[in-house]
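Cross-posting from the chemistry board since nobody answered there.

I work mostly on the small-molecule side, so proteins are not my area. We synthesized adenosine-5'-triphosphate and want a rough idea of how it might sit in this target. Sequence and SMILES are below. Is it possible to get a predicted 3D structure of the two together?
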Amino acid sequence: MLTTTASLDILLKEWQNERLLTPLDRHFALQMAQLHQQQSPLFILICTLLSQHLSSQHSCLPLEQIDFSNPLKEQHSQCQINLTVDELTTELLNFDAVSTPDSAILAPLILDKGNLYLQRYYHYECEVAEHLIRLAQAPMLKQSSSDPFDDAKILLDQLFTQNEQQYDWQKISTATALTKRLAVITGGPGTGKTTTVTKLLYLLTSQQELTIRLVAPTGKAAARLSESIKASKQRLASELQHIPLDKLKSNMAQIPEEAATLHRLLGVIPNSHQFRHHKDNPLRLDLLIIDEASMVDLPMMYKLLSALPAQASLILLGDQDQLASVEAGAVLADICSGLRVDLANGANGWQMRYSKKQAKLLSQLTHYPLDDFISDDPQIGDSLCMLMHSHRFIGDAGIGQLAEAVNQANLPRIAQVWQTGYKELLWLEHSNINSSSHHSNLGLEALLVQSVEQYGAYLKLIDNKAVSATEIIDSFNQYRILCAMRAGEYGVEGINQSVSKSLATTGLISPEQEFYAGRPVIIQSNDYNLGLFNGDIGLILPDDVSDSRRLMAHFIQADGGLLKVLPARLPSHETCYAMTVHKSQGSEFSHVSLVMPIRPSLAQQQLLSKELVYTAITRAKHHFTCLGSQRIFEQASSRLTQRSSGLSERLWSKIADTCE
Ligand SMILES: Nc1ncnc2c1ncn2[C@@H]1O[C@H](COP(=O)(O)OP(=O)(O)OP(=O)(O)O)[C@@H](O)[C@H]1O
């Protein structure tokens, strides 16, 4: 048994040295102990584990996951506490700093259904669940006529050609969003989320005047949403040629194209965590559409839902299989979790779950029988729709096949896809050659040759005065190296150095100074005055309007405009020939090369997950290269990220919880 605080402190320091804990985790625990005058080693240990869980993006600490004999999966534990979950629950509730949700005065730590929360996160989780369930149970806005869906039925039939052989889930998704104030439309890349939402917007705006806002978590994702909606509107217009041109034009003009970031929508207050819009100053809109919803973390979802006006509707679009948000929570995955089913082949699949009433209504609207999807108590299921057929990867079969095999963690299938020899897939094996005078990795060398060829394309445009900065940035964005890790030779830092060196050797760049023509930079913090945000990527290029052609950092903004900033004024940033997979979320590139580590540490292995590999693959539109070793690729593909949270249970349990 850990009997003294001193022995625990030694243990915490050891864990910190092994990087199993951050200094913040240790300080949090010690501060909690001081604040609540509680020196019990058990209390300090639990606070440490809670903080470590929150730093690892979990929303809470499930007590049943604590293994006292090895709490942080370290090599040699000296921690010898031994308690069952029931004993631990009793011990924890004896501390003043811990309470249950039904206590008269809530303590800073809340213990609910076997999960320990910081009070703030408990509040976020309950509120998000309540908001979502309330929206899911509310009918869509402004229904006036005796059969409010009469017009919608006609329009739905015009917009979707009825397919007798197969269910058209895009049509069913559109109908879902017509009937409920919450619609969650999910699916992998190219499954038609934007196409569906464009048709829905056409349908809604041709019936009534609505204030609609389109948003995404990052500037890049917002810019991509704008582009996709514009392209989708053009495709739709060409499909609807039977509609008189004037009417078609005026209907199309009603569909918004501009997308903003979530931060811009909510109104950032400089140097504050608060936004201008919140519960008491709600947004002014009728319909909010959030793309790339998998990137929205729990606190942000809480803030968005709180700022939503009482009668507004919400549509979440995203891919539930992608990496979850950078901060705590996995809101989209939790929302979708109730649809998960085990398939006969052992893989995971999804199945819609509707109430009888909703299945009947959707059937009437779409003419598809939905009795097979009726569930007893679907809670939020009436608002969900999944698109499973990718229209994007038909021509580029290899990428789609690999993404699917990884997503299903199907190792034999993954091996088979790599062995098929698809022209759009390239495997580079880490192969170290060591001789007394020489150390090289042939895989890395091949990657560097590829990067010189690929990045050479935009670098060669820089001196051509006929080519605009926007065109050069577009060319740069065709190719990107994504790293699974930040640190090390095969992390972002090492690969950036290696690529810079190769480009310099071939004379494509002259990196004598910090800022040189062609250097790509990624911003690492928000600068509201400059309008630059964490994750924004730009290029250092000669300013084509100044005579001296002095160097400026050029960024394409969410509205497509070009922002120029003096390099010396840039907020913290780094070179970006290579970036992390996390930072690439919401972006797409024609060619993606994923770099995996050779010998990941124990802590690094935890980060190499199926979601990470899947996200990297699905960033590629036409070509995907992987530098790795088969063993690490397979290990990563079979490691599912588990984010501890009580949200899934709150959304899908039979009796919806209310927040205390
Ligand atoms: N029902 C359909 N039949 C044929 N092609 C379709 C259909 N739906 C979408 N597509 C095509 O598939 C491509 C991808 O569609 P869309 O952009 O709507 O997908 P998405 O899910 O939004 O993709 P992403 O996740 O990449 O943003 C587009 O070229 C679109 O024209």
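Reply from a structural biologist on the board:
Welcome over. Reading the output above for you: Residues 656-660 have pLDDT under 50 and may be disordered. The pocket of adenosine-5'-triphosphate is lined by residues 170, 187, 189-195, 228, 232, 235, 391-392 (CB under 6 Å). Happy to explain the token format if needed.
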